[in-house]
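ESCALATION

Customer reports they have been waiting on this structure for their group meeting. Please prioritize. Original submission:
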Amino acid sequence: MRKGIILVCVWVATLAQAQTKDGGISESMLREIQKEQQLTATDRALMNAIAGNPIDDLARNHRNAGEIDTYFSVETRKQPINDQQQSGRCWMFSGMNVLKGDFARRTDSLTVEFSQAYLFFWDQLEKANLMLQGVIDTGQKPIDDQRVQFFFRHPLNDGGTFCGVADLGDKYGMVPREVMPETYSSDNTSRCSRLIASKLREYGLQLREMVEKGKKPAAIEKAKTRMLSQVYHILQCTIGEPPTKFSYAFRNKDGRPTGEAREYTPMQFYKEVVGDGGLNGTFIMVMNDPRREYYKTYEIEQDRHTYDGHNWKYVNLPMDEIEQMAIAALKDGRKLYSSYDVGKMLDRKRGYADTENFDYGSLFGTTFGMNKAERIMTFDSGSTHAMTLTAVDLDAKGKAKKWKVENSWGVEWGQKGYMIMTDRWLREYLFRLVVPKQYVPEKVLRAADLPPVMVVPEDPLFLPDE
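Update from on-call: job pushed to the front of the queue and completed.
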């Protein structure tokens, strides 16, 4: 023990002498670094292989590349696979998958495809208003204030969570896809979103100037309304004009109309498909964040889709508790909104996620040893993509072995549009789950009703699902 401590001290002292006084890489430190690179013939062959091939192809674990077991003991009814194209609207596709799954389950045969373009139009307009009103609310603060910076850095985006589906649907209703189909800009959101974001930043400066000059609230509101009118026009040109009335006939699972077409408003259609009470109040959002205390509710400041809507709010739970709720809902035929870090250990060619898919450590002669909490706190991992949980395979004791999600990357991707993941992968990389309240234990419902702990939107776990 004593000898080891001396050696460590000598090593640290050598490094301290080697670097420049301000912490930079000096010539002597560089020599120390290069001295460690004693390459063998095998090392050079490996370097040549890595230089000419994708890293994942070389790190692929051959022992884990066998045939994938596609059997699931609990599986919900299949539905058509969608494709979000070049957009960050996974949260919307997953949320609508849940709604149409619930509708088919409740009616036993009727099918529906919702218009993502319709809800996206209102999402972008509402986020524009959220940004502009946020700038007004913080108009007395300096421009480098953290909250002011938040609004100007993120004036709007195309990502989100399930509470966005709930707030937007409850406010604007929904329409069938055939009534408002996709456009190039709804499938490819980046250019339009960047243009609107640039305009919002310009408008934000103008509103701050009005606040600083003490303009009356009525004048500021009038200016904001005029600004939102321009945003509306850009959305109208790129995504289309949202319908106020339309004619529609529901179809059965064979695609045949079940009766005469009826006239609907978007809200009438929404209530018929979702229910008169809407979505808000029917579910809770849970997360697994081992950095924080479990059975407490956390609310993310300013992270919402509409100014008058709901901030993202989660009950933090252990994975065992989350899995039990998911299993109960799936057994009852309910699909679930869920989100993951799909950038980790996903074999995209096979649509298969497992912690043993790739062995990066052996490839580079090192280890990647952070646990889930450490990955979150260092921004190495967090929720990046929402998908619809549809199936689970249970062992004889009722424990999950593997899971299946419906993705929104088209039917040609992965397992014919689905992704299969082992339970050990899900426990490491699942972050959010939306659960209808009837499957939530009383203890968790009580936790959801407690005053929330407020969390800043810059927290690494709370980026939008895209």
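Sent to customer with the following note: The mean pLDDT is 92.
Escalation resolved.
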